[in-house]
Specification:
The protein is an all-alpha fold. It folds into two domains: 188 residues, no CATH class; 65 residues, no CATH class. It is built from 18 helices and two strands. A two-stranded antiparallel sheet has the order 1-2. A hairpin with a 2-residue loop joins β1 and β2. α3 packs antiparallel against α4, α9 crosses α10 and α15 packs antiparallel against α17. It is globular, with a radius of gyration of 22 Å.
């Protein structure tokens, strides 16, 4: 809850920088200019971040809500169109998950760009991802790890603070860190942010290589009719050859396949037990 409420994510700083650029050019000019650059610029997963401008160009061609949705999506629009089968796309009837963000944004009641995306995260990412995983892990051990940063009076008060107290320069969670200065050493408070992601990219090319190939190209997903098999093969081949990093998309699809297999297993009737 601390990152969402006090502006701790690096993506918030990137979004604010993009907002300044969006504010400097009219949408009618931005959309064709950066839309073209985003379409022709190569997707350089292997390159240093400063050279990975494709996502930034694509974001600058969009409005604020659409740009943030694009930046946090595991499967972006172009990938989703290729991943889903033609039949499934027709059944969706033009639906896009962006509609969820639009609906929440309409209720945000703020013209502060940081407050807007924080609200979107609190309504989607926090409740549907972060807290879900934390609840499963903590409640299994009789712990409540979200307090006090998720205490609702604190959340409400933090939402009333100006963004300048949350992000100052390159420092996120600014007001929180300043309040802790009397109690914690500076090298703890102001050390670089450190994530704890698992090395999916390496695992999917190494010890889980065959598991990925069997799951994404196997009968369970094929039988659903939801996916474009050629694109599933592209995800697996391009990732395992090292040409692209598709680890997030593969992980999501892998978990869906595991969910389907689990449903199939639990749906099987119990075997009859013969009496002696």
């Amino acid at each position: 809850g601390g990152d969402e409420n006090m502006g701790g994510y690096r993506r918030y700083r990137f979004h604010m920088m993009e907002e300044k650029m969006r504010g400097g050019l009219p949408y009618g000019l931005r959309r064709p200019l950066f839309g073209f650059l985003g379409s022709v610029y190569p997707k350089a997963d292997w390159a240093p971040r400063v050279f990975r401008a494709k996502t930034t160009f694509q974001a600058l061609a969009r409005d604020s809500v659409q740009a943030y949705f694009h930046s946090v999506s595991i499967l972006r629009d172009d990938m989703r169109r290729q991943l889903f089968s033609q039949r499934f796309r027709q059944e969706l009837g033009g639906y896009n998950a962006l509609e969820v963000f639009r609906r929440h944004a309409a209720n945000a009641q703020t013209d502060d760009p940081l407050a807007l995306i924080q609200y979107l995260d609190i309504k989607t990412y926090l409740v549907g991802d972060i807290n879900t995983k934390v609840d499963r892990a903590s409640m299994a051990h009789s712990l409540e790890v979200r307090e006090p940063l998720m205490d609702h009076p604190l959340v409400e008060w933090l939402a009333s603070l100006p963004s300048s107290l949350k992000i100052k320069g390159q420092e996120g969670k600014y007001v929180f860190k300043k309040s802790m200065e009397p109690m914690l050493p500076r090298d703890v408070l102001y050390r670089p942010k450190m994530g704890f992601a698992v090395p999916l990219s390496r695992w999917f090319r190494g010890p889980l290589k065959e598991r990925v190939r069997e799951a994404l190209l196997g009968e369970t997903l094929r039988a659903t009719g939801l996916f474009n098999e050629a694109y599933l093969r592209h995800l697996v081949d391009a990732h395992q050859s090292g040409a692209r990093d598709y680890s997030s998309a593969i992980w999501t699809t892998l978990m869906f396949e595991a969910f389907l297999r689990n449903c199939q297993t639990t749906a099987q009737p119990a075997p009859l037990v013969r009496s002696a």
